[in-house]
Q: What sequence folds into this?
């Protein structure tokens, strides 16, 4: 399929940049444990502008809503099920030309907290997430997640040290229950290691109080963009991103992304002005809803199957049951913690 590029880029190694359109769904800022959504989805599309415009028009012609701007919820209505399936299926416009990075928000909080305090992720974060959910009970698990969220978030109300005090009070109480690790699942050892890491938490809170955070630990957008760039770079191809406008994407953060993700460029646009971004917007909203339903135990098997080829194997996901059907291939589940 021919590629249409609107922005000339000179002096970029690796040849002509591939232009990718992006949008997200499920952003609640730094409130990841009690926000409106439990999944964050970042979608990207590689299509010519003319083809994307034609695809959007086909969707409008089939749905026939008077709305000026179509969103994912138009496609998710049961009466438009055929249009939704066509969009995702192998004969639709996105198949082979789109990608979705998923973030399970509660696992992202645990993963980032473990990285901050213990300097590691992967197995430790997955064990804490899995065993903690099974062992703490619903009330204490929610309290643990909320205290972890407050510890990490940049903006906190009240005394500067309050989030640290609350978090370690929670860990101390849990550690008494699991001292000696009676379950044999490793949970006691992880809690003990966290309890010994207070100095790292204090240093983190002091640091963010003094210096504005270019890279907020709790916002999943930046790592999702980094992973998106890695997906489309294809072994070194320069990537230029066209992204829907987002307050999170300040000039400083765009500069950070260009350097970290080795982007040829990143341009912000209004979704309505670029049909490729509109398609990315559709896909992000659809993917978030399908993944959230699957995580909640009431997924639609047909839609989950249609979404699966688009899902990034390095999505940040901790729930093994839902990942077994969301992940693109079974073996990818072992590498589900994405780039940061």
A:
């Amino acid at each position: 399929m021919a590629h249409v590029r609107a922005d000339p880029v000179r002096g970029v190694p690796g040849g002509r940049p591939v232009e990718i359109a992006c949008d997200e769904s499920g952003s609640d800022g730094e409130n990841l444990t009690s926000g409106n959504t439990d999944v964050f989805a970042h979608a990207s599309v590689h299509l010519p502008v003319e083809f994307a415009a034609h695809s959007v028009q086909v969707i409008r012609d089939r749905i026939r809503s008077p709305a000026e701007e179509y969103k994912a919820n138009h496609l998710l209505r049961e009466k438009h099920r055929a249009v939704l399936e066509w969009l995702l299926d192998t004969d639709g416009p996105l198949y082979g030309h789109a990608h979705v990075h998923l973030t399970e928000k509660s696992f992202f909080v645990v993963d980032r907290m473990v990285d901050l305090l213990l300097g590691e992720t992967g197995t430790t974060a997955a064990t804490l997430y899995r065993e903690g959910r099974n062992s703490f009970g619903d009330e204490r698990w929610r309290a643990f997640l909320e205290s972890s969220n407050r510890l990490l978030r940049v903006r906190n109300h009240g005394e500067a040290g309050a989030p640290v005090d609350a978090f370690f009070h929670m860990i101390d109480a849990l550690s008494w229950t699991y001292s000696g690790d009676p379950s044999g699942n490793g949970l006691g050892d992880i809690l003990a290691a966290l309890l010994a890491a207070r100095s790292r938490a204090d240093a983190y809170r002091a640091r963010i109080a003094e210096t504005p955070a270019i890279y907020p630990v709790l916002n999943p957008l930046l790592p999702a963009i980094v992973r998106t760039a890695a997906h489309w770079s294809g072994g070194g191809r320069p990537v230029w991103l066209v992204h829907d406008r987002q307050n999170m994407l300040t000039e400083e953060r765009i500069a950070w992304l260009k350097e970290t993700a080795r982007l040829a460029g990143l341009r912000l646009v209004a979704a309505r002005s670029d049909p490729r971004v509109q398609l990315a917007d559709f896909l992000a909203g659809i993917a978030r809803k399908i993944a959230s339903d699957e995580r909640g135990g009431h997924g639609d098997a047909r839609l989950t199957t249609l979404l699966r080829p688009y899902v990034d194997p390095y999505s940040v996901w901790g729930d093994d049951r839902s990942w077994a059907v969301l992940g693109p291939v079974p073996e990818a589940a072992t590498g589900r913690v994405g780039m940061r």
Q: What stands out?
A: Residues 106-210 form one domain. Residues 275-295 form the longest helix (21 residues). The radius of gyration is 21 Å.
